[in-house]
């Protein structure tokens, strides 16, 4: 029984890793705390619902459309709104992204009401037996997807020219600009990728659980706790931190009851900040 | 004989401004007899918002630390008042004294994980604290759980008394912001905000100044929360510990002008009018409007409307003198 709980926790950690990777990337490269990350996640799920309801597209295609739309929205927001604020100081973008998150949750509430919505698929309710233990199919799929994305992101950042440019812009944007890296476009690209990842995580959340206009904040906090655990800008560390959080949360929920699920996240967040302010795995951009 | 309004080195003295604030407060308090129930209620709510906004302003405007945990302090103060009043039978002075004390202690406790790190962590950490308190209270049957609490009506002040108390609290908050703006404490706090290394190099104990601002903000927010508890009488964790207080305090300061004394006052008037009279009952629309307002102000008028208005008035005055 308890082995199944731990396994489900590990797999849930994959979902959390997916939720946190974009936040970690933006925090690490742009030095921007994106308060709209949770809202983007929720928006991704609602966009998929909207597209499947309005068009005859099958869910995977609709989901891909939602992810692409979120990425495009992220690109435009960063290119035309946030970069100009970043130049002027750190608190402006923080307040602006908070404003964006309010707009997003308000718009979603206007269109869908404030009740939770889930994306109906067979995957959401299916369960599999892995090594004789019962696991939720949605968790397993999320875990596999998140693993693939984390490795791909890690390899892109560490092995490609684009990744080298991103790391240069993260380390010193002015010098990177001087040696011919288009930092503004790069920032927009990073934010677009982060938004797309958030939307993908939102899709998975919508399939595995449900989303409501207010659930953005709770996923923002989960992602933030994961980032703090894993070390900022450290993609593989983020993934490891997410798995740890998933396990701790699942165990706590099994032990004390579901009402304490979120409380565990917040308490863990404070404990890590107080004891290990650099995270479990240290800060580095892969 | 001229009244010495400035110090010998040319800075404004503190007392004329404080006297002006006290005079305004006395005027507002004297008007309580002439006001009806509706006006008293609206004004009390507004004054409580003003206290929260000024507390937020001291921390963010002068200390450079953006808090999204206003509800942890305000809600904490409210729950403190309600629990004390209903379980110990404590009277008004004791409960209203305990609320700011609780806020200050909460700030002190939160500063351990949050204040040693970058400002970003502070923002997220205060949000986490607010959500943690809400999640905890939902599960805490002694504090009413999800149903909430109520203050015993027999021991609560009536509307006019609550209004007078709110006047007092607002005076305290505006006075504290004014003092922060023009005292040595505030000057050092701003130095820490603008350049921590330089301030530390000049001998300012940076962490202690940030901590002082945070504790002051926590105490004022707790006091406001206590007053809100007496005004609302019954409340539940969804509203009292929800993100609304943080959103409003931030919005009022950002709209009016962060880091000015008059800005949050103007912001409170504008935002409160906008949100309560124009958008009452449209929760989703008001969220969108609040968000849009934040983004637009930060993008096009990052200093807020009060500094913008004073600067515009200043240029106008200069031009009129030239043409005259």
Automatic annotation (TrEMBL), chain A:
Biological process, per Gene Ontology: amino acid transport
Major location (coarse): membrane
CDD domains: TM_PBP1_LivH_like
GO CC, alphabetical: plasma membrane
Species the sequence originates in: Thermocatellispora tengchongensis
GO molecular function: transmembrane transporter activity
Transmembrane portions of the chain: 6-28, 35-53, 59-77, 89-110, 137-157, 186-209, 221-251, 263-281
Protein name: Branched-chain amino acid transport system permease protein
Subcellular location: Cell membrane
InterPro entries on file: ABC_transp_permease, BCAA_transport_permease
Keyword Transport applies: yes
Similarity comment text for this entry: Belongs to the binding-protein-dependent transport system permease family. LivHM subfamily.
UniProtKB/TrEMBL annotation, chain B:
Compartments it resides in: Cell membrane
Record key words, sorted: Cell membrane, Membrane, Transmembrane, Transmembrane helix
UniProt xrefs under InterPro entries: ABC_transp_permease, LivM-like
Topology versus the membrane: Multi-pass membrane protein
Tagged with keyword DNA repair: no
Major subcellular location class: membrane
Source superkingdom: Bacteria
Coiled-coil features, chain-numbered ranges: none
MF term (GO), any: branched-chain amino acid transmembrane transporter activity
Gene Ontology terms: cellular component: plasma membrane
Spans traversing the lipid bilayer: 66-85, 91-114, 121-140, 160-181, 211-233, 245-275, 282-301
Protein name, entry field: Branched-chain amino acid transport system permease protein
Organism of this sequence: Thermocatellispora tengchongensis
């Amino acid at each position: 029984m308890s082995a199944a709980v731990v396994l489900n926790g590990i797999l849930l950690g994959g979902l959390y890793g997916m939720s946190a990777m974009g936040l970690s990337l933006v925090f690490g490269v742009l030095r921007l705390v994106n308060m709209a990350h949770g809202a983007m996640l929720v928006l991704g799920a609602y966009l998929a619902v909207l597209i499947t309801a309005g068009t005859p597209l099958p869910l995977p295609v609709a989901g891909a459309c939602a992810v692409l739309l979120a990425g495009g929205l992220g690109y435009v927001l960063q290119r035309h709104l946030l970069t100009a604020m970043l130049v002027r100081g750190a608190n402006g973008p923080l307040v602006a992204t908070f404003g964006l998150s309010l707009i997003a949750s308000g718009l979603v509430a206007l269109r869908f009401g404030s009740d939770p919505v889930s994306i109906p698929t067979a995957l959401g309710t299916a369960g599999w037996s892995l090594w004789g233990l019962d696991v939720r199919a949605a968790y397993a799929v999320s875990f596999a997807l998140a693993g693939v994305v984390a490795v791909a992101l890690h390899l892109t950042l560490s092995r490609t020219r684009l990744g080298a440019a991103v790391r240069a812009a993260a380390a010193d944007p002015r010098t990177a600009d001087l040696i011919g890296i288009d930092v503004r476009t790069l920032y927009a690209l990073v934010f677009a990728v982060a938004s797309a990842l958030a939307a993908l995580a939102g899709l998975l959340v919508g399939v595995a659980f449900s989303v409501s206009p207010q659930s953005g904040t709770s996923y923002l906090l989960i992602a933030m706790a994961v980032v703090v655990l894993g070390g900022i800008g450290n993609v593989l560390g983020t993934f490891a931190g997410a798995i740890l959080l998933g396990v701790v949360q699942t165990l706590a929920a099994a032990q004390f009851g579901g009402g304490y699920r979120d409380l565990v996240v917040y308490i863990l967040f404070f404990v890590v900040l107080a004891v290990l302010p650099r995270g479990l795995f240290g800060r580095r951009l892969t | 004989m001229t009244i010495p309004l400035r110090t010998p080195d040319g800075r404004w003295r503190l007392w004329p401004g404080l006297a002006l604030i006290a005079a305004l407060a006395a005027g507002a308090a004297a008007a309580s007899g002439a006001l009806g129930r509706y006006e008293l209620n609206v004004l009390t709510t507004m004054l409580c918002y003003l206290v929260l906004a000024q507390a937020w302003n001291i921390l963010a405007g002068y200390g450079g630390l953006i808090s999204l945990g206003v509800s942890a302090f305000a809600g904490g103060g409210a729950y403190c008042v309600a629990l004390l009043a209903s379980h110990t039978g404590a009277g008004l002075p004791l409960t209203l004294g305990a609320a700011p004390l609780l806020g200050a202690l909460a700030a002190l406790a939160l500063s351990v994980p949050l204040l040693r790190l970058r400002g970003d962590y502070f923002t997220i950490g205060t949000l986490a604290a607010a959500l943690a308190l809400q999640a905890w209270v939902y599960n805490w049957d002694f504090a009413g759980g999800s149903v909430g609490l109520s203050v015993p009506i027999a021991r609560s002040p009536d509307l006019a008394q609550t209004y007078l108390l709110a006047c007092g609290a607002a005076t305290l908050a505006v006075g504290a912001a004014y003092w922060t703006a023009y005292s040595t404490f505030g000057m050092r706090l701003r130095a820490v905000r603008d350049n921590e290394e330089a301030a530390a190099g000049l001998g300012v104990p940076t962490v202690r100044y940030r901590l002082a601002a945070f504790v002051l903000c926590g105490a004022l927010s707790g006091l406001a929360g206590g007053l809100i508890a007496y005004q609302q009488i019954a409340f539940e964790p969804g509203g009292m510990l929800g993100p609304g207080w943080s959103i409003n305090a931030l919005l009022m300061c950002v709209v009016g002008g962060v880091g000015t004394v008059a800005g949050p006052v103007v912001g409170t008037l504008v935002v409160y009018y906008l949100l309560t009279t124009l958008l009452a009952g449209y929760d989703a629309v008001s969220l969108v409007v609040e968000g849009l307002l934040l983004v637009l102000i930060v993008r096009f008028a990052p200093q807020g409307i009060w500094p913008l208005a004073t600067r515009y008035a200043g240029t106008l005055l200069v031009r009129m003198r030239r043409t005259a």
